[in-house]
Amino acid sequence: MTPAARVQSAIEVLDAVIAAARREGASAERVAAEWLKARRFIGSKDRRAIRDLAWSAIRLCGEVPENGRAAMLAVAKRDLAVASLFDGSRYGPAPIRSDEPAAVTGFAPAWLAERLAASGISPEQGAALLGRAPLDLRVNRLKTTRDRLAAILPVATERTQAPDALRLPGGTPVESWPEFADGLFEVQDTGSQLTCSALEVRPGEAVVDLCAGAGGKTLALAAALQGEGQLLACDIDRPRLSRLAPRAERAGARVETRLLDPGREAEALVDWQSKADAVMVDAPCSGTGTWRRGPEARWRLTPAGLARYALMQANVLRIGASLVRPGGRLTYVVCSLLDAEGPDVVAAFLARNPDWRAAEQLVGAGTPRGSGLRLTPWDDSTDGFFFATLHRL
């Protein structure tokens, strides 16, 4: 495949990604994978090049581009090598017209950039949300230690702020390693690991992960329990929750799972009312802190969607709090940097519940925000998170 053909292919991938974003369809990763799957003749080197070109355009365009060509023209304006490939050659893109507009650049749609600025996110912090993320591992302390694992891995690693974290270059094929198959580590961002540390789980406790998903945080909590106590992982998403069992088996973790019916979560958890020592509430959110991994997500978010998230967050926080025993604790987490999803939700909860208080959190990273801490790629070299640990009196 010629370099010009790669650019044209990236334009076609972008067209598909933009269309999916407008109709709130599949993620860019899935769209690109499906596009490439239908073109098996494209080799692996070309596939990587096409993806890199497409993702460069996605990161560059704040507003939803009109089409893939406009998005790639934004890249061409900054990269003369890419601009030279709009040469009209066979399978390549047509030459650039003198009056042809490129997509508007920026780190987010205007309305969302304003919301982030109002939430204390500086332009530098916003731009860092679109950088390339490193690859972090969480060493599974049920089976090994950080020093032991670092000594046997086939690539060099570095430590981060989380006590069980090792950092590798992005794209390292860690899931093909025998150490992964043996359950010695999981892929988990340092920021996500720190939110689990904030709950301060201890062996022998009764713990609930209310919005467990596929179980990334659940397995971190299981490692903290060291095989002692109870751990219940819940979610309303059957496919995601079903992925937890094989992961737990590989990790050597004991986890009970429970599928919840939307709108009837409290009924399914009546046996845990006021009994948990610790509850993790990893609430559904806009994901503004994870744009390094899915930059097109910012094209999908709307003010109405953000309002819906805030209602869901207040609801799951209320449900999670009902499970905590007197003297117990809860950590509320969102991978968002918008105050409406983090500090504001916690402040409203504390105002309604005088028998709860916010606790001081010392996790070795983060900046105080409201009653909790904020992590950002710019300040902490992690994904973006807000989290707060609350104690029931």
Structure description:
The chain has helices at 3-22, 28-37, 44-60, 68-78, 80-83, 110-118, 123-128, 146-152, 178-181, 190-198, 216-225, 238-242, 244-251, 265-268, 303-322, 343-352, 377-380, and strands at 135-139, 158-159, 165-168, 185-187, 206-209, 230-235, 256-259, 276-282, 324-334, 356-358, 367-369, 372-375, 385-392. It is α/β, with parallel strands linked by helices and 393 residues long. The model has no long low-confidence stretch (mean pLDDT 96). The strands form 2 sheets. Strands 5, 6, 7, 8, 9, 10, 11, 12 and 13 form a 9-stranded mixed sheet that branches. It has a 4-stranded antiparallel sheet with strand order 2-3-1-4, covered by helices on one side.
